[in-house]
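Rotation project, supervised by the postdoc (A.L.). Task for the rotation student: set up a whole-complex structure prediction and record inputs and outputs verbatim in this book. Inputs entered:
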Amino acid sequence: MTTTTASADVIRVSVPPRSFRSELRAMKIVWRREMIRFFNDRMRIATALVQPLLFLFVLGSGLQRLSSAGTHGVDLKTFIYPGVLCISVMFTAMFSAASIVWDREFGFLREMMVAPVRRSSIVIGKALGGATVASFQGVIMICLAGTVHVPYDPVLIIGILAIQALLAFSITSFGLMVAVRIKQMQSFMGVMQMIVMPMFFISGALFPLAGLPAWLAVLNRVDPLTYAVDPMRRLVFSHLDISPAARHALDPGLTWGSWHVPALLEVAMVALLGLALLSIAIWEFSTTE
Amino acid sequence: MIEVDHLRKNFNDVEAVRGVSFEVAPGEVFGFLGPNGAGKTTTINMLCTLAKPTSGRALVAGHDVVKERDAVRRNIGLVFQDPTLDGYLTAEQNLRLHAELYGVAAALVPGRMRQMLEMVGLWERRDSAVMTFSGGMRRRLEIARGLMHSPRVLFLDEPTIGLDPQTRSSIWSYIRTLRETEEITIFMTTHYMDEAEYCDRIAIMDQGEIVALDSPQTLKASVGADRVRIETDDNEAAIQALREHFGVEARVAEGAVMFAVPGGEEFVPRLFADLDVPIRAVSVARPSLDDVFMKYTGTTIRDAEQSSAQARNRVAMQMFAGGRR
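Outputs recorded:
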């Protein structure tokens, strides 16, 4: 198997000093790896869809029979649709972040750790990869809008995509922050379940924010996911043709005391939180040997 | 190419590496030999910038492993003991990813990749997912990947551990090919004695220290004499005759007469001519690196491994007991 190539024919390459361009290239290849792996894994695409579909169609159709008076004639599926748009990207983003734990278990993380690039490039590549994968999952959910009486309006679709991408990015960053510390897959999944499930239930993805018991209202305002679900709901409801009473009951908007928090501020908070979590993840990742 | 000066690494109270110093010349194949737990991997990790030395200094390809971490990383290739491939990607995708991470000029990647894959005999399998590969194929692919960016120093940490003899010998043939075709220095660790003989020089490491460093031939010569083993009808008479005629002290071991003489092969004809005790069988053994290891550490590499494993177990037991209290 020894090659017959004389030494003159050997292609010699060189590794250039670190530059902004090389960091971008590293980021891009880490991102691309997430893409390749996601699209190779049809199972993952399919299974990640099951949960949002269950919520939307099973829970939505089932509970409709109890709550038709409370929703003022609006289909319950339509009401929870914005919440389901959020959770669908949320769970996918969480799984994407878990890949760093897998990478560690299978040793691949080491290959990236010894490369002559900044650790931040690797973490950012991972976060963007996770966000892209999750957003792709979101696109499938957007396609279902018609089945729950939500119009296919270009402005609405772009808005949904933007909020989903932002949420996916923040959740992936959160997941990465946790994943850097946790060395075992079982523990990671346990921790994420413990944090993500309460966040999801408290966020108001499945109930309106008006008239909650005081304790739940407080928890709800503290839950970061609330600030993604609420603007998503406002966005979707602004494109629905429903009675003012229904709008008032189902989409009251988030308040701090008596102050209505603007949707843009909510979105900005999600973005800032995501960046903060990403910075922590980068810092943690850079300080490990 | 590598300069190491009083390099030391402590893990809490344990001194894993106790101030080692050595130099490796450009183009050399340098072997680190020692039992598991001797500090070989810790040393390699410090040279690869994966672990920070507690004290001391090391230069790799002219760069300090602590202060110029990136410069060192650009110039080295690594093949670890444990696999670090992405099993879901194909062989080609793994190499491409590596080239991108190292910033290799895109135009050169396909050619370099083909050469490396051909060298390790995996060109035909480039489009297969790595998880379908056998252990030997994966190790070969790791070597190809470690070479993708034309490193000046290639670090191989136990490159042949757990592999079948055929793969082991092909890995050694790649290393010989590399010496001819690339300007590369190879630094490897092993605990297979027979493999150490392929190195230009070897350092024997035991309990965090280098106990001997030289070429395999010189080290073997330092052990001295060849060992001769004869089977006779009357061992006692043979021992006495050996003492009287040749001034050689022999002893009986495993039912045969054993003794050590310099130049054993030349000694045997004289033995037949002058010894009046009939000889049924004779064998001459040159000193092996096993003997070298024995001489410098006072134990065989297998025994050394056992005792260090026992020591590790004791530590683990204590930690376990401590944690429960």
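Student's summary: Chain B has twelve helices and 14 strands.
Supervisor addendum: The mean pLDDT of chain B is 84.
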